[in-house]
UniProtKB/TrEMBL annotation:
Family, as annotated: Belongs to the NmrA-type oxidoreductase family.
Gene3D superfamilies: NAD(P)-binding Rossmann-like Domain, UDP-galactose 4-epimerase, domain 1
InterPro entries given in the database record: NAD(P)-bd_dom_sf, NmrA-like, NmrA-like_oxidored
Pfam families assigned: NmrA
Stated name of the protein: NmrA-like family domain-containing protein 1
One GO cellular component, as annotated: nucleus
SUPFAM superfamilies for the chain: NAD(P)-binding Rossmann-fold domains
UniProt KW keywords: NADP
Domain NmrA-like: 29-303
Domain of life: Eukaryota
Amino acid sequence: MFSCYGRSEQKYRPMGCGMSSEVPEGEPRTVVVFGATGLLGGAVARALLEDPLHFRVRAVTRRPSSERARKLAEEGAVIVTANQNDIASLEKAMEGADAMFLTTHYWEDKNKEKEIVRGLNAIDAAVHKGLTHIVFNGSENVKRAIGKDCGHLDSKAAIEGYLREVGVNFTIIRLPFWYENFYTVFRPHQVKYGVYAIPLPMEGKPLDMISVDDVGGCVMHILARPKFYSRQELNLAADRLSVDQIARVFSKNFFNKKFITPNIRVKDYEKFDFPGAQELAAMFAFYQSDLAIRDIKLTKKLNSNLKTFDKWLDLEAEKVENAIKEGTKEIESTKKT
Ligand SMILES: NC(=O)c1ccc[n+]([C@@H]2O[C@H](COP(=O)([O-])OP(=O)(O)OC[C@H]3O[C@@H](n4cnc5c(N)ncnc54)[C@H](OP(=O)(O)O)[C@@H]3O)[C@@H](O)[C@H]2O)c1
C-alpha cells in the first residue's frame, strides 16, 4: 500500500521496464505537458516541438480556446482539456501517452494542500494509464530544511515524496530563481526618477538563477534519456550572482538607468503585508542556505546553450524595459489616487 495521503495501491508498470536510454528517431514519444500555456510548461512544450522526430506534445490546459492554447496548436501541439482537480479529465488526457512533464501550481489559490492533491491526481492518472516516465518540477522541503513554512515549495516536496513511493520511473528537476522573474514579480521598481531598486533579501549571499526557456532544453534532454536519468534529482542553474552583481548587469544593459540594491533582510521581508510575502521570505531564506546551491556544471551538460544572466538580459532587454515602465506607471497611478 502507498502510505502517502492515504492513496491506495494502483496498477503500475515496473520502473524502467523495457525502456532504452535513447528515443529512437522516427518513433516519437507522446509527452503530456502540464502548464503548457504558462512560462515553465510553455518552455518545455516549445523545446519538445522543435524535435518532432523524437517527441509529440500533448499540451494540457483548462482553457483550450485561450490565445496561448491556440498558439501552441499552431506550433504543432495537440491541445487536451484537463484539470488537475479532475482525475477523469487527467486520465483521458493521458490515454496512450508515453511520458509526462508535471508542474503544479500554488499561486491561484495559495493553498498547499490543494496543490499537493493536484500533483497526486496527475501522478495517479499517469500511473493508471501506464506512462513510463514522469519529469516533475519539484523542491526541497523548506520547512524541514530551515524551519520556515513555504507553501509553494513544501507542496512540491510532498509531491516528490509521493512520486518516489508509487514506483513509476521519474526524474525530478529542482529549479532556482528564474531570470524571467525580473519582468514579472521581481521587476526592478522606480524609487525616484531614473533610479530603480532590486530588493531581493539575499543578505550578501549569491543567488542561483536560470532562464525558464533553458529549462525547456534541459527537460527535453532528460525525456530523451529516461533510463539514464531514472530516479534522479537534478538541481539546475545557469548562473550564480550576488544581488549587487545582478544590479551591475542591469546597469550595463540599461545605461540610462541607475539600479540600487536596498539592504533588505529576510526578517524585513516577512513583515511586508502583500499576499505571499511570508512564504517568499521563507523562499529567500532557503535560497541563502547551502541547500539551494544548484549544479551549473551538470545543467550545462543537459543544455549546452545555457544563457548567463548578462546574455539573457541583453536578449530580453525590451521585455524587461516594458515591464519596468509598466511598474512605474502603476506606482505613479497609485500615488495619484
Ligand atoms: N523558480 C522560480 O523563480 C519560479 C518562478 C515562477 C514560478 N515558479 C513555479 O513554477 C511553476 C510554473 O509556474 P509558471 O510561472 O510557469 O506558471 P504560469 O505561467 O502562471 O501558468 C500556470 C499554468 O498552470 C496551468 N494550471 C493551473 N492550474 C491548473 C489546473 N488545476 N489544472 C491544469 N493546469 C493548471 C495553467 O493552465 P491553464 O490556465 O491554461 O489551464 C497554466 O498553464 C509553479 O509551480 C511556480 O510556483 C518558479
